[in-house]
Design brief:
Helix content is 67%, strand content 2%. Helix 13 runs parallel beside helix 19 and helix 15 runs parallel beside helix 17. The chain has a three-stranded antiparallel sheet, with no helix packed on it. The longest helix has 36 residues. With 511 residues, it is an all-alpha fold. The chain has 20 helices and three strands.
């Protein structure tokens, strides 16, 4: 299997064997077909690609990388959201928390989360996500484990502050890490599989809490055992991840030389403008010179409130159904599992159709409808309808989070700009947990009408902004095609020509 040499220098070029294929510079648009070659629009061969080998390569990534990342994110989600389960079983009473202190504890997490995320993401780009992600995992595992020793509000608030710091760049770095393994059209379903771990974690958290809360003996309050189990497992797995994860696709130890070359060229033509590009701070922040980056941040804000409301307060929402604390935690399992299933359905559909914004908008619509139904009906009199509404809430929070991140990452070929936008956008969405933490007030229990109305309003706004941005991208592509005198598809342009983003003449939006 041989590959034509492209205009970038592969790290494997120095000792590569001579090829029977003549070396030609890449020029023109890439046209992918069912054959084993990729050609430019003038008929020149760019790369010889064995499709069977490429499928085998992606399967290896799926089996070797995705499960480890999914488990890491499962622990990340458990360690972040376990307070909701602990609250239903005596955390406030044990620590003697006053009325507003629980909400303060939830809110303080998001301040360092936003402030430190860009810095940790830059370190991840500089030293490699394969090193920084396990170190972050070790840190937030230790913070979770230490909760077992807290005695008061001040101690728990301090640990939540450091937990926010250690988790801040985790999801942005994982997104960037996956963009160094997968083509743009492969990314949504892989990231969805990874992100589904969060929904599974929420479900598993309910099951784990159900089991742990059966402990009637021991020196600790039963809710503390939840943190012992989750924190210790997190710390142990971080050591394995540090040893196991490769730096990038083209340097993975478990790949042969030919597979490394194929991995490198896949990223060169359909992910990055410069593969394994060094980080340049000033150039990376130029991503914010284009107004669409600010629109993405606005959509992230609209996403953040529903996302954090459901993640943090689903047990409290479900408690309105009238069950005891143990059953309430158990009844959060099915909605979270269904959220993971819906996420996978929409992500696979998005990759299959190569459309992003309609599926993001659909997620916002689910959120809006679910919260409006739950707030508007007589929950006690219509238990089945109310419970179904909680399913819609989870459908509408998981999918937009993944597909929105994939959407803008697909449109940023510069690796430095990609990691900067992601490290600001994702934490900004999580910062909205400050809003969610303060709209769900004990005085509004059990209906939480102000909180549900606020959540629905953010969902509706996100729906509108997503449609507007998608419409702009479609119209701008049409304008560019008219100027070029021909219709050019996104897949027709190798990403190595798109370093300057929308300023590049051949740029087309992946919408």
């Amino acid at each position: 299997m041989e590959y034509e040499k492209a205009s970038q220098k592969s790290p494997l070029d120095d000792d590569r064997r001579s090829s029977d294929v003549s070396e030609k510079a890449i020029g023109g648009a890439v046209i992918e077909s069912d054959s084993n070659i990729a050609t430019a629009d003038d008929g020149r061969t760019i790369a010889v690609v064995d499709r069977a080998a490429e499928r085998a390569l992606t399967r290896r990534f799926d089996l070797r990388i995705l499960p480890v990342l999914a488990i890491m994110y499962l622990f990340n989600s458990l360690d972040k959201s376990n307070l909701g389960n602990a609250k239903t079983h005596g955390l406030e009473k044990t620590l003697k928390l006053k009325q507003s202190e629980y909400n303060i504890i939830l809110s303080v997490f998001f301040v360092p989360y936003v402030l430190t995320a860009p810095f940790l993401a830059i370190l991840g780009k500089k030293y490699g996500p394969n090193r920084v992600l396990p170190l972050m995992m070790f840190s937030f595992g230790c913070c979770t484990l230490l909760v077992t020793a807290v005695k008061n509000f001040e101690g728990l608030m301090t640990l939540r502050w450091f937990l926010g710091m250690s988790e801040s760049a985790f999801f942005p770095l994982v997104i960037y890490y996956q963009t160094t393994f997968y083509r743009r059209g492969e990314l949504a379903r892989r990231l969805a599989i990874f992100y589904a771990a969060q929904s599974i974690a929420s479900a598993f958290s309910g099951l784990l809490a159900f089991g742990v809360f059966q402990i009637r003996t021991g020196a600790l309050a039963d809710w503390r055992y939840l943190f012992v189990i989750e924190g210790s497992c997190t710390v142990l797995f971080s050591f394995f991840a540090y040893i196991y994860l490769p730096q990038s696709a083209s340097t993975a130890r478990f790949l042969s030389r030919s597979e490394k070359e194929l991995a490198y060229y896949r990223m060169q033509v359909d992910s990055s403008s410069v593969v394994n590009e060094k980080f340049h701070l000033k150039d990376s922040f130029r991503i914010f010179k284009h107004w669409t980056s600010w629109m993405i941040l606005a959509i992230e804000i609209c996403l953040g409130v529903p996302l954090q409301s459901v993640q943090l307060f689903l047990p409290q929402i479900v408690s309105r159904l009238g069950y005891d604390a143990v059953k309430t935690n158990l009844y959060t399992v099915a909605p979270n599992i269904s959220g993971a299933v819906m996420l996978l359905i929409l992500a696979f559909a998005s990759d299959w159709t190569r459309w992003r914004f309609p599926f993001v908008a659909l997620g916002f619509l689910f959120t809006f409808l679910g919260t409006v139904i739950y707030a508007g009906i007589d929950v006690e009199g219509q238990l089945r309808v109310a419970y179904f509404a909680t399913f819609m809430m989870t459908w509408g929070t998981s999918a937009p989070s993944v597909l929105l991140d994939v959407w803008y990452n697909n449109n940023v070929a510069n690796e430095g700009r990609r990691v900067v936008l992601t490290s600001i956008g994702v934490p900004l969405a999580n910062l909205m947990g400050v809003v969610s933490s303060n709209i769900f007030q004990n005085k509004d229990a059990p209906k939480y009408i102000p909180a549900l109305a606020t959540t629905a309003a953010f969902g509706a706004t996100g729906f509108v902004l997503t449609l507007l941005l998608g419409a702009y991208m479609m119209l701008d592509n049409t304008r560019r095609d008219r100027k070029a005198g021909r219709k050019i598809q996104v897949r027709d342009i190798p990403t190595e020509k798109l370093k300057d983003g929308p300023a590049a003449e051949d740029f087309r939006w992946f919408y």
